[in-house]
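Please go through the sequence line and token line underneath and see whether the fold suits the sequence. See right below:
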Amino acid sequence: MKNIILSIFCLTIAGCRYQTELEKVYSLEGDKTYIESGVNGPLTVEEQNAIKKYFSGIKELGYRLKTDNRFNNYFHKKYFVYYQTGTCSNVILPKVAYEKVLERCEVNGFFICSEEARDYIQMLKSIEAELTDLERRSLEDEAGCGDALRELGVINESN
């Protein structure tokens, strides 16, 4: 009996942990909005921190999907329950905004932002590679998301 209760407790804790990980995706919306609203000119420390947080969050999601089988299974199981229409377009930084970030990060030949910013497109491609065909189609069909991912070169027209 103790083993059964302990097993249920452990599964509940693991589920909560993964739920928290998925909720981090929604926190990227605020960072994306803050990054897009940035003015031209030198980056402030707050903007650099937002850039680092945003791109690190994208990298962490891709890393977890690729390396953590339990998280990957939980992600696929909860994908259509958890992610609402608009999540992708609210989280993905469009190509124009991404290029603006890269320009602002380049100062006198030095890259002053986190290295994750340079690898954004590759990180999105690694996430896309972990998606099922049905999940991929739902992103392609989402208004604003499919176009943004095509512009970034994450998905092809033929997909």
Notes: Residues 2-36 form the longest helix (35 residues). The chain has a mean pLDDT of 82. The longest strand covers residues 106-107. The chain has eight helices and two strands.
